[in-house]
Here is the input.
Amino acid sequence: MNKIKRIMAVMLALVMVLAIAPVQHIWADGVQQENQQPGEGRLGEPQQNQQMGMPPQGATQTIQLRVEGDAAGTDELAALVMVSLDNGANYKSLKELASDANSKVQKNGSSYEFDSAVTSIMAYLTDEAGRYMLHTPVQIGKNNAVRINAGQTFIQIDKVRYTVTWAYDAKRYGEDAYLEHGTAKIIKVGDKTDFTDWDMFGSNPGNKDGGNLVVEPGQQVTVKLVPDYGYQLAGVSLNGNTLAPQENISTYTFTMPQTNVHFKGAFVKAADVTDVSSAAVGKIEISDGDNAAASGNLKIDVSDSASDTTKANEQIAASDGVKKEVVANLDISLQNIVSKGMNADEINEDNYWVNNITEFDNPVRLDVAIKNFDKNSEYSVVREHNGSYDVLDATVSDGKISFETNKFSTYVIVKKTAEKAVVTNPDTVVKPQDDKKSADIKTTDKTDKVADNGGNETKLQNIKNEKAAKTDDNLNVALMLGMLLIGAAAIVVSLRRKRS
Here is the structure.
């Protein structure tokens, strides 16, 4: 009986051992996963014990330093790693040790393997490594030298990576990289203008959505910052860097800082500029300016021209009794102005890119205020451009003449006014003009002014004149008869005296 109990106890103990072993394995795996740091255990990355110089299970017991990264070639990177084989008494670069035939270090690709007799080394990185991004347990500076024992230790030295970023919506990269009222594009970094083989991260120099380009600090970046029409660049500072305007319009350069660069709200609203020096016209306004310029603003100049206006005046037809006169002979010029970011009021080549515009496809509208405007007259506009004359469709309202044009040179404004006829000789009868009523035409006399209203008053005057003439004739006949009677009477008296 006791023998049976002993057998059962052994069997029970065996079952318990078999049951507990898997649980211990699962618990151990859970602890490892819980304590695992970000990036550990991924394919191609060293384990924590590898980074600290401890050999992984089943790995070689020799010391290996594996130097990698895109900052430079393996030999150049190995020159940044300083190693001591005598407990920190003397240091030589890893590159120098590997090139020494008597050294206990041999290069194998990107790995530097130490002789099995070397069981411990001291290592640090030179100050020059501070210019790069480091992924390594090895620190910068001799005072920070670390001890490395058997196993493989990774030393990764990469280029410092910062980005120039912007988007045309506030969601893609956030509010601090939101560019509105204009566009941006990186066209050059250092000597490189082709970005097709750029880093897989941050390789967009600019497209319809925005841009995100990796740039090393210290590189000179050339960017085009193009405002929409009616907007200008607000300033020249970008993350503390001055934007230097270049010869080409809207093109700037800056030195990449050791921080990310964001283009944010770089453009502000701006008005077109007018400069009127003509004595014949007042202010001038321009509409639909984006037909002439895609970005920035327009500057329009109006001055009096000394050119001959004879041919321009001949283009305007006028009927008899209508007076034509040139009231304005204007030189009108147009320029596209884009600010260089100087925030200066004076428009010159130091502060603006200035481009003369003489012809374009779709027209702009000009509203020109006429001085000494006559609301009873008609106005026409004749454009002379490269020897050709065109009469433009124009409207007149509130003292302004408005017309559309897509060519800028000389403009002649002609006024047409109907003349009123005046008669100063009473014997002269003036026939009414086609577009005037008879009552509007007057005749004058020193004693009497009589208007010919349809001929009625003239006929009445003629009758009066005829009556007056007849009355004078009758008076003359009566006078002659009286004189004859008086003479006859005198003769009779004389004869009687002689007889007596």
Remarks:
- The first strand starts at residue 63 and ends at 68.
- The two ends are 234 Å apart (CA to CA).
- Residues 17-58, 435-460 have pLDDT under 50 and may be disordered.
